[in-house]
Amino acid sequence: MSKILVTGGAGYIGSITTRHLLAQGHQVVVLDDLSRGHRHTTPPELLRIVHLQDTAQVEPHLEGVDAVVHFAAYIAVGESTREPELYFSNNIGGSLSLFAAMARMGVKRLVFSSTAAVYGNPEKVPIPEDAPFGPVSPYGESKTTVERILGQLDQFRGLRSVALRYFNACGAEPENGLGEEHEPETHLIPLLLRAIESGQPVQIFGTDYPTSDGTCVRDYIHVSDLADAHVAALNHLMKGGASAQFNVGTGRGETVMEVLRVVEEVTGKKVPFTIAPRRDGDAAELVADSTKLRRTLGWEPRRSELRQIVEDAWTFFQRGRG
Ligand code: UFG
After folding, report:
1. Is any atom of ligand 1 closer than 6 Å to the C-beta of 216?
2. Is it true that domain 3-170+219-248 has CATH number 3.40.250.10?
């Protein structure tokens, strides 16, 4: 059993990863300022309400901690283009403050929430980890910068870290009452479900991409499988493993219209939609080459069939929220 500090543990992926860590027998402390996370997602006895940028407030919570899993960040790509300073300050500033506190307290293992957005518009799909960085939004830039900083901290602080580059996180764990609760919501699957409920059409952003049906292709990965990747990354670090970066995706891609059709099949309802222009910054196709994660950490997706993802998201949407 290890003692793990989870920053941003009241958010979507953080709360579900916390459950997986507890199920493995780890002791967990959750740091969250609840600016975007939700109090009800975290067992109250584990939650510490702390601003990550306040280094002195963070330090005492690192006492006796074996490793940190660092989720805390703002995640909306569109918002980041309107408020870049907010994203740099929160995502880079918050991380730096955490790393300074870790250095003071002698904590030398970290799993970092990164993103496919570090690649921008990749030259090659499926995308391997050694593809060049090319972020096209302040959000992507903030995560890229933190990954670069971690490279230096490995060398000069002996901080061993694993960066997990998520593709399209989705799905839910309705059995734990946990799933996506972003406000405002920008992600495709919850928006399709909301459109069914409200009758307000969802916009399909672009039907003229060079893909099978003209809509964008994404690699949808179930949040449960993402959480498992964090547990595997922690085990790697606890065994003395070296710093590394891994894509977390299935290696399969689905178009927006394919996702919409699966939502209709699972729910038995029509999704009202309208065709809209392309959304700024959307790449035509983002699919992970996840060979490295499978080979190095023995990770395999278990719940990421699109039908399963949508069933879980729908169950959570209908009864699991709040
Ligand atoms: N889409 C629509 N209509 C909507 C919302 C989305 O057509 O109302 C489309 C998008 O254009 C895109 C696909 O559905 O083609 C998926 O969009 P999401 O917003 O759900 O996800 P993204 O692929 O844009 O973003 C995800 C993560 C980001 C991360 C990015 C990495 O949410 O955090 O992948 O590229 F940065």
Report:
1. yes
2. no
Q: Is the CB of 194 under 6 A from ligand 1?
A: no
* CB 143 within 8 Å of CB 118: yes
- The domains of the chain are located at 3-170+219-248, 174-218+251-321
The hierarchical CATH code for the domain 174-218+251-321 is: 3.90.25.10
137-157 pLDDT per residue, tens: 999 999 999 999 999 999 999
174-218+251-321 matches 3-170+219-248 in CATH topology: no
- Tens digits of per-residue pLDDT, 77-136? 999 999 999 999 999 999 999 999 999 999 999 999 999 999 999 999 999 999 999 999
Protein residue closest via CA to atom 11 of ligand 1: 205
The verdict on pTM exceeding 0.90 is yes
Q: Using an 8 Å Cβ cutoff, are 67 and 234 in contact? A: yes
Ligand 1 centroid–CA 155 distance in Å is: 35
